[in-house]
Amino acid sequence: MKNLVKILIMSALWALPAVAQETPDVMDIVEKANHVSYYKGDDGRAKVNMRIIDAQGRERVRAFIILRKDEDTADGKDGKQKMYVYFNKPADVKKMVFMVVKNMDRDDDRWLYLPALDLVKRIAASDERTSFVGSHFFYEDVSGRGIDEDNHELLEQDETYYIVKSTPKDPKSVEFSYYKNWIHKSTFLPVKTEYYDGSDQKIRSYTALKVDMIAGHPTVTASRMENHESGGKTLMNYSAVKYDVGLPDEIFSERYLRKAPRKYLR
Amino acid sequence: MYKRLPIVFLLAFAPLAYAQDVELPQGLEGLGDFSIFEEEEDEGFPVDLSWSVESRIGFRLQNDVHEKDVSIGEVRLQFGLTKDFDSVSFNFVTDFVFDPVQDNHGIDLETGQGFIDIRETNIVFSPFEFMDAKIGRQVLTWGTGDLVFINDLFAKDYNSFFIGRDDEYLKAPSDAIKTAFFFGDTNVDIVYVPRFDADRFIDGTRISFFDRAGGRLGGDLSGRANPVIANRPDRWFRDDEQSVRVYQSFGAVEAALYYYNGYWKSPAGQNPLTGAAEFPRLQVFGASVRGPVAKGIGSMEFGVYKSADGAAVNPLVHNDEFRFLIGYEQEIGTELTGSVQYYLERRGGYDQYVASLPNGAIVDDKNRHLFTVRLTKMLMQQDLKLSMFNFYSPTDKDGYMRFNVSYKLRDNLKVEAGGNIFYGQEHHSFFGQFKDNTNIYTGLHYDF
After folding, report:
1. Does A192 lie at the interface with B, CB-CB under 8 angstroms?
2. Is B383 near chain A, with CB under 8 Å?
3. Mean pLDDT of all residues in B5-10
4. Is the CB of residue A162 less than 8 Å from the CB of residue A153?
5. Do A211 and B167 touch (CB under 8 A)?
6. Domains in chain B, start-ordered, CATH in brackets?
7. Which of A195, A265, B147, B418 is 20 to 30 A away from residue A144, measured at CA?
8. B411–A61 CB contact, under 8 Å
9. What ipTM does this complex have?
10. pLDDT (tens digit, 9 = 90+) per residue, B355-384?
């Protein structure tokens, strides 16, 4: 409850139409941006469609349902999350399930269920910055990048956006040397993210294409990730988005890897 | 600074936050009304159907006097149907196969012989909140090994595996009743197979092998001219199998106990009068753990195989065994995963076994050590996949390497090529006996 009040107060504050333009704490902005991007509601579900388009214009399609549930933390901060991804398309991955437990203190736990073999496979946590299901989005773009992995700096702000520059603490672990994030002031939604290499060349960029208000949560329902080096891009579309579905914890277990929870996938 | 403002003052602005529920805040509505997809909603269609077709052709790289030069040459049409009712799902998957390499075409749903091979016909339901049931023909898998099985005693198809069919065909279907119980932390799976389901074992029809009972004393290579005649236990509800798994997670570590009561899944005995291959009784007790280790996933599993009574002194029946496996998998580069396993097969009652052998017979080692390595690399937005899996046994001085390259031309069109390379110094060792079956293949898969 205390936290709710705090959040209300905070959002009220940020909703203030540019009262005295004080320089807010950049960690505060980043924390909120992370929250609205990955932690809306106590849980959520969405139908996701992807169009993966390479430089030659060839197209691949992915369709899956994502179920997400956040774990309560003692301090009310954003913490552990569980994700269940059920594939519908393409045909060769239909009915496959990918499950992730996102841990705060160590690598994520991942499982893959292959229905043709009835095999529950534990998969090694990979580099977070590799392609998610063959798209131009990385695992980290889908599940969120730890806010403590970068040093953040508020570059500038205008009427609508905070522009935050983030520099990795461990440059060797990532392919970029820094990124800039345009964070919408009143909602804290990152609307544009640009990744740069060492010579300030833009190598990759994310753009929110459509935002819908769903159950009180401003939600990006269409977005684009472009790789400027390869010329490829992926368009991602969220539909049938629901928050606070009341997903039981058991969904994220071997039982439901083998037997999809149809009720929540429809 | 703002944090110190009086709360009353701040609360006065709270309604502003709620106001956002009504319309999008400034700066976001301008993003446009972008729709990426013309939603083709196929929901509401009464059943979920799927069709795919694939053709494969492959050749032996050397002459094998016991088999055809063509190792695989088939067209396979797979049809799948799923129908979900309120509380019950029905699944049906079948393959229609045109396979001229096979000599016999009589339909046998147990061995997969003939033009039809039903892989699934089952219903799935939850009679209680804490219980799931799956009844009918189904594919079953458990355990931690990667292409090495200890406590997974569900039927395998080694012919498919060795000639380069898709990985999914390594598992042969079982006609079974699977019940799963979920008691919070501890879960129990019980699988009952009312009539023994054997492996689709190497019987000479597709793959030549070393027949220890064949030819002169000491055995000889054998193939399709003299396929194995096996005497399967086949009485309903009497020649049955029971498999149990009890499993629980401790944090990120998964632990399981296993029990199996049935028969050796591939021939492990011989009838002294008829010479027919037999499937002696078998009980297995085992356990496994799997969890994160360093930057990857580690696993360990063992099983104690209790063969039929008197196996130790009977040269015609496999002895008891102790099987142990330890494995580790990790991402070792960009889109590159590597894994290693060590596997031990130790023969029980070894001295008795040696003493029971007739003069001149092949004497197996007490311990069979096996190492496996897997490498998987993805390229081109994961459309191109390169994979390699190698088994090597220092004790048998033999091995088996599988490799495969697959490329998705489109989402529903995949072309692939691969090989199954057997090597070894002796004709009779586990992998060495298959040397003449070394083959390469290519295939095309299309999903409708």
Report:
1. no
2. yes
3. 40
4. no
5. no
6. 2-31+48-447 (2.40.160.10)
7. A265
8. yes
9. 0.88
10. 888 887 888 999 999 999 999 999 998 999
